[in-house]
Fold:
Amino acid sequence: MLDIHYMEYGKGHDETLLLFHGFTGSYQTWLPFLDAWAEKHHVIAMDMPGHGQSDIQDDLTMNRFTDEIAVFLDKQGIQRVKLLGYSMGGRAALAFSCRYPGKVSELLLESASPGLLTAEERLARQRQDERLASMLEEEGLEQFVDFWENIPLFETQKSLPDPLRMAIRLERLSQQASGLAKSLRTMGTGRQDSNWGKLSQLDIQVTLVTGALDHKFVGINQEMERQLPAADLHIVAEAGHCIHVEQPRIFDKIVRRYLLHVEADILEES
Structure:
Protein backbone atom coordinates (compact mmCIF):
# COMPACT_ATOMS: atom_id res chain seq x y z
CA MET A 1 0.00 0.00 0.00
CA LEU A 2 1.10 3.55 -0.69
CA ASP A 3 1.49 5.88 2.27
CA ILE A 4 -0.70 8.73 1.04
CA HIS A 5 -0.86 11.89 3.12
CA TYR A 6 -4.16 13.73 3.12
CA MET A 7 -6.11 16.40 5.00
CA GLU A 8 -9.83 16.32 5.75
CA TYR A 9 -12.29 19.18 6.07
CA GLY A 10 -16.05 19.23 6.74
CA LYS A 11 -15.90 15.67 7.98
CA GLY A 12 -19.53 15.51 9.15
CA HIS A 13 -21.07 15.95 5.70
CA ASP A 14 -22.44 13.03 3.67
CA GLU A 15 -21.01 13.88 0.23
CA THR A 16 -17.24 13.64 -0.30
CA LEU A 17 -15.13 15.80 -2.59
CA LEU A 18 -11.70 14.32 -3.41
CA LEU A 19 -8.96 16.65 -4.68
CA PHE A 20 -5.86 15.80 -6.78
CA HIS A 21 -3.28 18.58 -7.31
CA GLY A 22 -0.79 19.01 -10.16
CA PHE A 23 2.92 18.27 -10.59
CA THR A 24 5.14 20.10 -8.03
CA GLY A 25 2.05 20.88 -5.92
CA SER A 26 0.58 19.51 -2.69
CA TYR A 27 -2.72 19.50 -0.84
CA GLN A 28 -1.94 23.14 -0.01
CA THR A 29 -2.79 23.99 -3.62
CA TRP A 30 -6.42 24.03 -2.54
CA LEU A 31 -6.11 25.93 0.76
CA PRO A 32 -7.75 29.17 -0.50
CA PHE A 33 -10.94 27.23 -1.34
CA LEU A 34 -11.23 24.57 1.34
CA ASP A 35 -13.29 26.45 3.93
CA ALA A 36 -15.94 27.33 1.35
CA TRP A 37 -16.02 23.88 -0.25
CA ALA A 38 -16.25 22.18 3.15
CA GLU A 39 -19.38 24.08 4.17
CA LYS A 40 -21.59 21.36 2.70
CA HIS A 41 -19.12 18.63 1.71
CA HIS A 42 -16.59 16.32 3.30
CA VAL A 43 -13.39 17.33 1.52
CA ILE A 44 -10.27 15.16 1.21
CA ALA A 45 -7.19 16.95 -0.19
CA MET A 46 -4.37 14.52 -0.95
CA ASP A 47 -0.65 14.86 -1.55
CA MET A 48 -0.09 12.96 -4.79
CA PRO A 49 2.63 10.26 -4.75
CA GLY A 50 6.11 11.79 -4.61
CA HIS A 51 4.71 15.15 -3.51
CA GLY A 52 4.30 16.78 -0.12
CA GLN A 53 4.31 14.07 2.54
CA SER A 54 3.20 11.18 0.30
CA ASP A 55 5.72 8.51 -0.55
CA ILE A 56 6.25 6.95 -3.96
CA GLN A 57 7.70 3.66 -5.15
CA ASP A 58 9.78 2.90 -8.22
CA ASP A 59 7.23 0.40 -9.56
CA LEU A 60 4.20 2.67 -9.24
CA THR A 61 1.90 3.02 -12.26
CA MET A 62 -1.14 5.18 -12.85
CA ASN A 63 -3.35 2.08 -12.79
CA ARG A 64 -1.89 1.00 -9.48
CA PHE A 65 -2.46 4.48 -8.07
CA THR A 66 -6.13 4.31 -9.05
CA ASP A 67 -6.38 0.88 -7.43
CA GLU A 68 -4.87 2.28 -4.23
CA ILE A 69 -7.39 5.12 -4.22
CA ALA A 70 -10.24 2.62 -4.60
CA VAL A 71 -8.93 0.69 -1.58
CA PHE A 72 -8.51 3.93 0.38
CA LEU A 73 -12.13 4.91 -0.25
CA ASP A 74 -13.37 1.47 0.72
CA LYS A 75 -11.45 1.67 4.00
CA GLN A 76 -12.97 5.07 4.67
CA GLY A 77 -16.46 3.70 4.02
CA ILE A 78 -16.91 6.10 1.10
CA GLN A 79 -18.93 4.59 -1.74
CA ARG A 80 -18.78 7.46 -4.25
CA VAL A 81 -16.95 10.76 -4.52
CA LYS A 82 -17.07 13.95 -6.45
CA LEU A 83 -13.61 14.21 -7.96
CA LEU A 84 -11.59 17.30 -8.92
CA GLY A 85 -8.15 17.13 -10.50
CA TYR A 86 -5.75 19.73 -11.88
CA SER A 87 -3.22 18.96 -14.68
CA MET A 88 -1.36 15.81 -13.57
CA GLY A 89 -4.06 15.36 -10.95
CA GLY A 90 -6.65 15.75 -13.69
CA ARG A 91 -5.06 12.92 -15.67
CA ALA A 92 -5.18 10.82 -12.51
CA ALA A 93 -8.79 11.81 -11.77
CA LEU A 94 -9.88 10.87 -15.29
CA ALA A 95 -7.94 7.59 -15.12
CA PHE A 96 -9.63 6.73 -11.82
CA SER A 97 -13.06 7.61 -13.23
CA CYS A 98 -12.51 5.41 -16.29
CA ARG A 99 -11.25 2.50 -14.16
CA TYR A 100 -13.80 2.84 -11.35
CA PRO A 101 -16.80 4.67 -12.83
CA GLY A 102 -19.09 3.39 -10.10
CA LYS A 103 -17.05 5.22 -7.46
CA VAL A 104 -17.36 8.68 -9.06
CA SER A 105 -20.61 10.63 -9.13
CA GLU A 106 -19.26 13.77 -10.85
CA LEU A 107 -15.92 14.88 -12.23
CA LEU A 108 -14.29 18.27 -12.73
CA LEU A 109 -11.04 18.45 -14.70
CA GLU A 110 -8.91 21.60 -14.73
CA SER A 111 -6.37 21.79 -17.57
CA ALA A 112 -6.35 18.01 -17.91
CA SER A 113 -6.03 15.46 -20.70
CA PRO A 114 -6.74 11.75 -21.29
CA GLY A 115 -3.04 11.18 -22.00
CA LEU A 116 -1.25 10.69 -25.30
CA LEU A 117 -3.00 8.80 -28.07
CA THR A 118 -0.14 6.93 -29.79
CA ALA A 119 2.74 4.76 -28.58
CA GLU A 120 5.17 7.01 -30.48
CA GLU A 121 3.93 10.10 -28.60
CA ARG A 122 4.18 8.29 -25.27
CA LEU A 123 7.74 7.12 -25.99
CA ALA A 124 8.83 10.64 -26.92
CA ARG A 125 7.29 11.98 -23.72
CA GLN A 126 9.02 9.29 -21.65
CA ARG A 127 12.35 10.48 -23.05
CA GLN A 128 11.48 14.08 -22.25
CA ASP A 129 10.40 13.22 -18.69
CA GLU A 130 13.57 11.17 -18.17
CA ARG A 131 15.61 14.27 -19.02
CA LEU A 132 13.62 16.24 -16.44
CA ALA A 133 14.04 13.51 -13.84
CA SER A 134 17.79 13.47 -14.46
CA MET A 135 17.88 17.25 -14.10
CA LEU A 136 16.23 16.95 -10.70
CA GLU A 137 18.74 14.36 -9.55
CA GLU A 138 21.86 15.97 -11.00
CA GLU A 139 21.20 19.70 -10.61
CA GLY A 140 18.89 19.75 -7.59
CA LEU A 141 15.44 21.06 -6.82
CA GLU A 142 16.11 24.80 -6.93
CA GLN A 143 17.64 24.76 -10.40
CA PHE A 144 14.79 22.55 -11.61
CA VAL A 145 12.22 24.99 -10.21
CA ASP A 146 14.05 27.87 -11.92
CA PHE A 147 13.65 25.96 -15.18
CA TRP A 148 10.09 24.76 -14.52
CA GLU A 149 8.58 28.14 -13.72
CA ASN A 150 9.92 29.46 -17.04
CA ILE A 151 8.47 26.84 -19.39
CA PRO A 152 5.87 28.19 -21.87
CA LEU A 153 3.03 26.43 -20.02
CA PHE A 154 3.41 28.87 -17.11
CA GLU A 155 4.22 32.03 -19.07
CA THR A 156 0.95 33.67 -17.98
CA GLN A 157 1.93 33.30 -14.31
CA LYS A 158 4.67 35.89 -14.77
CA SER A 159 2.04 38.63 -14.64
CA LEU A 160 0.77 37.52 -11.22
CA PRO A 161 1.51 39.68 -8.17
CA ASP A 162 4.94 39.00 -6.68
CA PRO A 163 3.61 37.58 -3.37
CA LEU A 164 1.48 35.05 -5.24
CA ARG A 165 4.35 34.05 -7.54
CA MET A 166 6.54 33.57 -4.47
CA ALA A 167 3.89 31.38 -2.79
CA ILE A 168 3.79 29.14 -5.89
CA ARG A 169 7.59 28.97 -5.95
CA LEU A 170 7.78 28.08 -2.26
CA GLU A 171 5.28 25.25 -2.74
CA ARG A 172 7.44 23.88 -5.54
CA LEU A 173 10.59 24.25 -3.44
CA SER A 174 8.95 22.36 -0.57
CA GLN A 175 9.12 19.15 -2.59
CA GLN A 176 11.84 16.49 -2.64
CA ALA A 177 13.82 16.17 -5.88
CA SER A 178 13.77 12.38 -5.61
CA GLY A 179 9.99 12.30 -5.24
CA LEU A 180 9.40 14.50 -8.27
CA ALA A 181 11.83 12.44 -10.34
CA LYS A 182 10.01 9.24 -9.44
CA SER A 183 6.68 10.89 -10.21
CA LEU A 184 7.85 11.71 -13.73
CA ARG A 185 9.12 8.18 -14.27
CA THR A 186 6.02 6.42 -12.94
CA MET A 187 3.00 8.72 -13.37
CA GLY A 188 4.21 11.01 -16.13
CA THR A 189 2.12 11.49 -19.26
CA GLY A 190 4.37 9.19 -21.27
CA ARG A 191 3.95 6.33 -18.80
CA GLN A 192 0.17 6.53 -18.64
CA ASP A 193 -2.13 4.48 -20.85
CA SER A 194 -4.27 6.63 -23.14
CA ASN A 195 -7.86 7.10 -22.02
CA TRP A 196 -9.05 8.73 -25.24
CA GLY A 197 -10.84 5.54 -26.30
CA LYS A 198 -12.74 5.36 -22.99
CA LEU A 199 -14.26 8.85 -23.00
CA SER A 200 -17.39 7.83 -24.90
CA GLN A 201 -18.13 5.20 -22.24
CA LEU A 202 -17.77 7.54 -19.25
CA ASP A 203 -21.41 8.02 -18.34
CA ILE A 204 -21.09 10.68 -15.62
CA GLN A 205 -21.31 14.46 -15.68
CA VAL A 206 -17.89 15.95 -16.48
CA THR A 207 -17.04 19.63 -16.15
CA LEU A 208 -13.98 20.72 -18.14
CA VAL A 209 -12.17 23.93 -17.24
CA THR A 210 -9.32 25.44 -19.22
CA GLY A 211 -7.75 28.86 -19.61
CA ALA A 212 -8.30 30.77 -22.83
CA LEU A 213 -4.57 31.56 -23.05
CA ASP A 214 -3.62 27.88 -22.76
CA HIS A 215 -4.23 27.15 -26.44
CA LYS A 216 -2.98 23.56 -26.43
CA PHE A 217 -5.31 22.52 -23.64
CA VAL A 218 -8.23 24.46 -25.08
CA GLY A 219 -7.95 22.24 -28.14
CA ILE A 220 -7.59 19.06 -26.08
CA ASN A 221 -10.61 19.92 -23.96
CA GLN A 222 -12.76 20.86 -26.94
CA GLU A 223 -12.11 17.40 -28.36
CA MET A 224 -12.80 15.82 -24.97
CA GLU A 225 -16.13 17.66 -24.81
CA ARG A 226 -17.08 16.23 -28.20
CA GLN A 227 -16.33 12.66 -27.11
CA LEU A 228 -17.77 12.67 -23.59
CA PRO A 229 -21.50 11.78 -23.29
CA ALA A 230 -22.22 14.52 -20.72
CA ALA A 231 -19.69 17.35 -20.57
CA ASP A 232 -19.64 21.11 -20.09
CA LEU A 233 -16.55 23.07 -21.14
CA HIS A 234 -15.64 26.37 -19.49
CA ILE A 235 -12.94 28.43 -21.20
CA VAL A 236 -11.88 31.11 -18.73
CA ALA A 237 -10.68 34.44 -20.11
CA GLU A 238 -7.33 35.92 -19.07
CA ALA A 239 -6.08 32.62 -17.69
CA GLY A 240 -3.46 30.11 -18.74
CA HIS A 241 -2.91 26.59 -17.46
CA CYS A 242 -3.50 27.30 -13.77
CA ILE A 243 -7.00 28.78 -13.59
CA HIS A 244 -7.37 28.30 -9.83
CA VAL A 245 -4.42 30.66 -9.33
CA GLU A 246 -4.89 33.10 -12.21
CA GLN A 247 -8.68 33.47 -11.95
CA PRO A 248 -9.52 32.06 -8.50
CA ARG A 249 -12.91 33.74 -8.10
CA ILE A 250 -14.22 32.35 -11.39
CA PHE A 251 -12.73 28.92 -10.69
CA ASP A 252 -14.31 28.81 -7.24
CA LYS A 253 -17.71 29.74 -8.65
CA ILE A 254 -17.48 27.08 -11.38
CA VAL A 255 -16.58 24.41 -8.81
CA ARG A 256 -19.32 25.43 -6.39
CA ARG A 257 -22.02 25.64 -9.06
CA TYR A 258 -21.22 22.66 -11.30
CA LEU A 259 -19.57 20.23 -8.88
CA LEU A 260 -20.93 21.15 -5.46
CA HIS A 261 -24.30 22.46 -6.68
CA VAL A 262 -24.14 25.55 -4.51
CA GLU A 263 -25.88 28.44 -6.20
CA ALA A 264 -23.25 30.86 -7.51
CA ASP A 265 -23.34 33.41 -10.30
CA ILE A 266 -20.52 32.70 -12.73
CA LEU A 267 -18.41 35.70 -13.58
CA GLU A 268 -17.39 36.43 -17.16
CA GLU A 269 -15.45 33.44 -18.48
CA SER A 270 -14.55 34.29 -22.03
Summary: The chain has a mean pLDDT of 96.
